[in-house]
Write a structure and sequence with these properties.
- The chain is of the alpha+beta class and 154 residues long.
- The protein has a single domain, classed as Hotdog Thioesterase (Thiol Ester Dehydrase, Chain A, Roll).
- Helices cover 23% and strands 30% of the residues.
- The protein contains 4 helices and 5 strands.
Length: 154
């Protein structure tokens, strides 16, 4: 697997990645009067990908919350490539990129499932807050264990 093909955003600090691909159907209420998806819904599709990743790998929001942490979005990027229309189905590829810092980095590739065309790419960064909503500067022990469990670190 070549990193340049899998990583639409240059992330030099990362080492290992895990990927989930999920299907998202474009609903009627997500399009404008021309049948085109409003740009803000792309972030919802990215969220759908992040939740599917968490469900597959045991890193969902509730999994993290049960460990005493919150993981708010600190940075979000979305690069729009092609419009999406009502009735289309997207494949949302969500990739976790391991890094040494106390943060979670994902990249995203959204494709039209019929044509395979890339319609958007993106990147998000989440940070850890403790139960007092204070920024956690060190990697939480449960997250270090999770990385070992899924094989991104040995």
């Amino acid at each position: 697997m070549q990193t340049a093909m899998r990583n639409p955003v240059n992330i030099l600090e990362t080492k290992t990645q895990l990927t989930n691909t999920t299907r998202v159907s474009v609903r009627f209420n997500e399009v404008d009067s021309l049948g085109i998806v409003w740009h803000g819904h792309y972030l919802k599709y990215i969220e759908d990908g992040r939740e599917a990743f968490g469900a597959q790998y045991g890193l969902g929001y509730l999994d993290v919350y049960q460990q005493g942490y919150l993981i708010p979005i600190a940075k979000m990027e979305c690069d729009y490539k092609r419009s999406v229309e009502y009735g289309q189905t997207l494949l949302v590829e969500t990739t976790f990129w391991d890094c040494d810092a106390a943060k979670i980095i994902f990249t995203y590739v959204l494709r039209n499932s019929a044509s395979g065309e890339i319609v958007a790419t993106g990147r998000s960064m989440q940070v850890f807050l403790n139960n007092k909503r204070e920024l956690n500067l060190t990697v939480p022990p449960f997250f270090a264990e999770w990385k070992k469990k899924v094989g991104v670190v040995r």
